[in-house]
Amino acid sequence: MASLAEWIAGARPRTLPNAVAPVIAGTGAAAWLGGADPVRAALALLVALALIVGVNYANDYSDGVRGTDDERTGPVRLVGARLASPAAVRAAAVGSLALAGVAGLVLALLSAPWLIAVGVVCLAGAWLYTGGSRPYGYAGLGEVAVFVFFGLVAVLGTQFTQALRIDWVGAVAAVATGAMSSAVLVANNLRDIPTDAASGKITLAVRLGDRRTRVLFVALLAIAGVATLVLTAATPWCAVGLLAAPLAWRAAAPVRTGAHGAALIPVLRDTGLTLLVWASATAITLAALA
Predict the structure, then answer these.
(1) How many whole angstroms separate alpha carbon 238 and alpha carbon 35?
(2) Disulfide: which of 30, 221, 238, 269 matches 231 by Cβ 3.0-4.6 Å?
(3) Taking the model in full, what pTM does it have?
(4) Which of 264, 275, 200 is nearest to 17 (CA)?
(5) Which of the four pLDDT bands, split at 50, 70 and 90, describes residue 69?
(6) How many whole angstroms separate alpha carbon 278 and alpha carbon 128?
(7) Cα 74 from Cα 265, distance rounded (Å)
(8) Does some domain include residue 4?
(9) How far apart are CA 258 and CA 260, in angstroms?
């Protein structure tokens, strides 16, 4: 039986900024429109956190039963390491996704019922990333899904459920958030190229190869930087988001210098921290100047 610490590790806490930051950014964008609502923001945060934990457990289960996680560097894999039964991890995934669904249903009924359809797509995307007979995560589409779900949908959805409309500020913030969220997955998949290729998991990193995956990681961080400069058209004070630049530089250092394996693990942490600092600084600025 897995211990509580192993279950927590299996939820992959280092990915939580990918859930928290879009809600922060979206709430800041809603405040810019004069529509921030703490109750709806809290519901959006619950949806995002439950969804990402559900995704992580679902990936652990699906990759584990396929044997993809038998040899891995990085966070503990509950099924792959034989720490928990596949049924137990699947139940944890389903429970987390169900919680996300319930919270999302409440949020949709408080704002716009048509968002229920968006929620259904998000839940399906969470499970089919590595689940089902043709998982899209095995076809090199994982980074695209992260950009869409934890960038565009999460930020603009958070803005809309509070302000009941979106604008270009929210859209640019969503692009920046999606780019940094995708960079976290790129770093993870860069580390796992050898084992993913051997097990038949054809991620985008496997398709691109080591060198071009490193270029993609840096490019995604650069896109976030450009988006920050675009936001200064709303208010020059959005340049405060560039406070995250030193963290981005630190995150990219192992990627730029050719690190491999376990040496790439800190990249996930530092990229997530970059995302969280950027979202917080930008949201505070937008809210203060609304």
Answers:
(1) 19
(2) 238
(3) 0.94
(4) 275
(5) low
(6) 30
(7) 7
(8) no
(9) 6
Residues sharing a CB contact under 8 Å with residue 122, sequence separation 6 or more, in sequence order: 51, 100, 104, 149, 153
Instruction: Please indicate, yes or no, if residue 1 is contained in any of the structural domains.
Output: no
| Paired tokens of 98 | 């169900």
CB 180 within 8 A of CB 39: no
Q: At what angle do helices 17-32 and 154-163 cross, to 10 degrees?
A: 40
Would you mind telling me the total number of residues written for the chain in this entry?
Answer: 290
Q: Which domain holds residue 18?
A: 13-288
The domain that contains 121 carries what CATH number? Answer: 1.10.600.10
Choose among 104, 139, 106: nearest CA to 118.
Answer: 104
pLDDT at 74: 65
Give CA–CA dist 131/228, Å, rounded: 35
Residue that has been written with the tokens 């340049």 in this structure: 239
114: left (phi over 0), alpha (psi -120 to 50) or beta: alpha
pLDDT in tens, 141-197: 999 999 999 999 999 999 999 999 999 999 999 999 999 999 999 999 999 999 888
256-283 per-position pLDDT tens digit: 999 998 899 899 999 999 999 999 999 9
Task: Give Dmax over CA atoms of the chain in angstroms.
Answer: 54
Q: With respect to residue 8, please indicate whether it lies within any of the assigned structural domains.
A: no
